[in-house]
Amino acid sequence: MTHQVVIVGAGFGGLAVAQGLAGAAVNITIIDQRNHHLFQPLLYQVGTAVLATSEIAWPIRHLVRKRKEITTLLGEVTGVDTQNRTVLLEDGGMAGYDSLVLATGARHAYFGHDEWEPYAPGLKTLEDATAIRRRILLSFERAERETDPVARAALLTFVIVGGGPTGVELAGAIAELAHQNLPGEYRHIDTRKARVVLIEAGARVLPSFTEDLSAYAHASLERQGVEIQLGQAVRECSADGVIYGDRPLAAKVILWAAGVRASSAAAWVGLPADAAGRAKVEPDLTAAGHPEIFVIGDTATINAWHGKPVPGIAPAAKQQGIHVARTIRMRLGGDAAPQNFRYKHAGNLATIGKRAAVIDFGRVKVRGWLAWWIWGLAHIYFLIGLRNRLAVALSWLWIYATGSRSACLITQGEQRPAERLR
Amino acid sequence: MTHQVVIVGAGFGGLAVAQGLAGAAVNITIIDQRNHHLFQPLLYQVGTAVLATSEIAWPIRHLVRKRKEITTLLGEVTGVDTQNRTVLLEDGGMAGYDSLVLATGARHAYFGHDEWEPYAPGLKTLEDATAIRRRILLSFERAERETDPVARAALLTFVIVGGGPTGVELAGAIAELAHQNLPGEYRHIDTRKARVVLIEAGARVLPSFTEDLSAYAHASLERQGVEIQLGQAVRECSADGVIYGDRPLAAKVILWAAGVRASSAAAWVGLPADAAGRAKVEPDLTAAGHPEIFVIGDTATINAWHGKPVPGIAPAAKQQGIHVARTIRMRLGGDAAPQNFRYKHAGNLATIGKRAAVIDFGRVKVRGWLAWWIWGLAHIYFLIGLRNRLAVALSWLWIYATGSRSACLITQGEQRPAERLR
To answer: Among this protein's residues, is A141 annotated catalytic?
Structure first.
């Protein structure tokens, strides 16, 4: 029997395993609950009407269509029978494995306040992004028709909770939309007066960057009109707005970029997890007692970065995927010695808005317009395929040249009866 | 007071009125329940994963942003107070008018069988298109995991009800997807064996074209693997499939392209309507007794094509919009004599699949690859703005060259809790 590899999750980690096993004597099954691989680093641009959904997503089975040994299944995994080496699916289906890779990622988390989700959606899937886009654009539309100045101000106040890269990128993109792209389109409101408020519980934005890059990002955001509130935890989210510190802020759009929680993979295989639900794995990325099970990416935690935890970013998931593929290959060749994973940090990137970004390559630090160009070229480079590179480049150049965003569509408002019934 | 024009509906007709009034001494309010103008002739390509949503839709307020006399409102009209010349909105809002243009279009209709809609969705909005795309792609995914051959066959049977241009274009696009684009992506099914069945109650497909073009379209569809059933009305649609004539056909995807019903505009202004709900208007497109109210496009019916009814196509709506704008201008200039509308038919176009289309310009008829190129160039020409022309051209050239569709995304499966609550 050919060695059977099951990969759960077709994000950066899962796909890297599949790519790393090209030509190996294995059969591979990729299981994902979505039919597409998503380029998450640009998801906030779908949420802010810069890019279209199809520009940053690829059907998984299309990506691997030439690898006849790979089967792609659309399905939701509910557990793993480690005794019988079988993955269990929601609809009763199952998939047996010799090697199992769990790369199921994370979702945003509310620190025990899941009741905030309806009021403060996060950004992890294409549906999240179109829902956020809808919410932002609809708020401008409602403000245009609102005559009460207090209600109108709440509709024109956009709160972003969390000052990491996602929060900073969202705040910058919304400020740019309101202050630069939309003015002139409305008759009763001045979108330049919209407030964009970024709330961060810590002492500075972009805490994973060096202090001087944080300070630069802070100043850039303020120059774009973003109000930054530091050292203040959000204590309440509701339909009326947020309470942070002891101050209430009336706002109709609240976006959550403050925390993530790993998928249930740790529980499936009985592993201990950290506070965010990430499975604690062995130095070779396997589950303790189950050398045939690997857990990688956002759903795992490992101190493999000179003793520090590996960060939850795309390059880390890719490196882990490559490591797993190499380990499986060595075992197929008869070498079963554990291979410890070591993370190599290439750098941190975050964009703040038009012509402003920060990059921390360790020894080299870049900021401003040069960083912005490097950021843009790097992201186009890492997109898959010429088709989407051309499409994203066209979208960006268009906005850069004309200042108008092409994807300002409000959709998905009602669920059609047809959809409800099936 | 400046003359106030209210336009309800920003389709081809409504926008043509606004364009025709450029520079006139009027204030204009455009009301639409969507925030975007939609290029409906290409909507079936969103439904079949050829184009992205943002490639055929434009935010209305962006299109008219430079016309400071135009106010755009997102809202749903529920009625018209003709006495007080006021349009009533669902949320209690209202808009007074001196001239009113109702250009509210149509939706698909089920000839008294609205209970079929959940099983046989139609194609009129972007949401319709993404829902249909999801349904088509999900059926292939489910077939890939289905082991029972009978259930699998039903998942791989696609029924299109209605042999007009929309039905023909959908059937051709689905056949092309199944038989040319998807093969090689699945491991357990052969998508080339998928059945695409086009059911038409009349005696031939494309009944609005000449008989020889109908026959050509019929032969082209069959060459692409579409099964055509003529002279058979659909008597039942359910989760299991359709019954047509007295034959049942097991099918999990049924698409409705058989009939339309006009919006409620006729009822708002107390006009008689035809069987499809279209308001019967005066020869100058006004409502009887209300020369200040115009009804145009798919929501009106008028025998202004050498005594025959004007067809429900984009060029007809545009011509009516231009006529209304001209009438309002003449009245502002003091000439109140009624101006009869006369429809000029430019031609009928329909595409059948890659390198096949039919065009009927009256004296000149074109079919085959030349018609296909004319069809493509004409549609790119009629798109608004360089941005979307480039994007659509890129999408088409890419598919033409590589045979892979870029928009094969299954989205909008679940409504997120965040969306349900608001």
So the answer is: no
